[in-house]
């Protein structure tokens, strides 16, 4: 190696000379030949590209993504709750599409005691007699729509005398379809009476006799 040859290190440096022979001077490596620390992955992307794994920067916890997942889950549960509530409301509306009609039928018979020598006894059970013999417990009560089609049926309960000439019955007609503007109600074959929906739902009072 000449004084002007700076292209290669001395052979002793390259061979790793030792100090076993004290007469051999160990060449001193100039600072400009200090080994360069090994580089990272030569095929990886340059460092400093944010916190994404594999790009050299620190990896930060993805709290936003986690919280976003929680929010999405809560929203999904809320949607299920809304759907369930809507289904419950629809079921309630379906149940309310019919109504039970409860009413009173009052028979007044002032002629019974005069012609037949009998009368109603207040507080006791009673029924029609003579021309009113079709009025008794179990007599049919029908509800029809405005066109006259029978849409529900019920019956009179047992009568109770409220005076010597008055016998009162109650009746229930279940499952009357709602939504009609007008209804027709008939007890036995005594003719029909017309009610609007509110009047029928309120409980009609039907009277017969003099």
Derived from helix and strand composition plus strand pairing, the structural class reads alpha+beta
The percentage of residues in β strands lies in 25-35%
Strand runs, count: 9
The radius of gyration computed from the alpha-carbon positions, rounded to a whole number of angstroms, is: 52 Å
Question: Mind telling me the CATH class of the domain at 98-209?
Answer: Mainly Beta
Helix content: 10-25%
Question: What fold name goes in the CATH topology slot of the domain at 98-209?
Answer: Immunoglobulin-like
Q: How many individual helices?
A: 4
Globally, the shape reads elongated
Keywords: Membrane, Transmembrane, Transmembrane helix
Give a nutshell description of this structure:
Keywords: Membrane, Transmembrane, Transmembrane helix. The chain is an alpha+beta fold and 210 residues long. It has helices at 11-15, 63-95, 112-116, 197-202; strands spanning 98-108, 125-126, 140-144, 150-156, 159-161, 166-177, 182-187, 192-196, 205-209.
């Amino acid at each position: 190696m000449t004084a002007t040859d700076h292209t290669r290190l001395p052979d002793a440096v390259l061979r790793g000379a030792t100090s076993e022979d004290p007469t051999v001077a160990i060449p001193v490596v100039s600072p400009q030949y200090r080994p360069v620390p090994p580089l990272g992955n030569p095929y990886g992307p340059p460092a400093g590209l944010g916190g994404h794994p594999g790009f050299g920067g620190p990896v930060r916890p993805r709290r936003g993504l986690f919280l976003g997942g929680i929010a999405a889950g809560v929203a999904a549960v809320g949607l299920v709750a809304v759907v369930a509530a809507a289904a419950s409301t629809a079921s309630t509306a379906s149940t309310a599409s019919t109504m039970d009609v409860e009413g009173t039928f009052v028979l007044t018979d002032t002629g019974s005691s005069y012609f037949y020598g009998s009368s109603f006894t207040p507080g006791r059970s009673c029924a029609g007699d003579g021309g009113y013999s079709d009025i008794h417990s179990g007599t049919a009560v029908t509800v029809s729509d405005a066109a006259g089609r029978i849409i529900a049926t019920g019956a009179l309960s047992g009568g109770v005398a409220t005076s010597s000439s008055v016998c009162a019955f109650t009746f229930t007609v279940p499952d009357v379809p709602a939504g009609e503007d007008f209804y027709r109600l008939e007890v036995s074959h005594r003719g029909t009476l017309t009610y609007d929906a509110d009047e029928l739902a309120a409980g009609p009072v039907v009277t017969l006799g003099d």
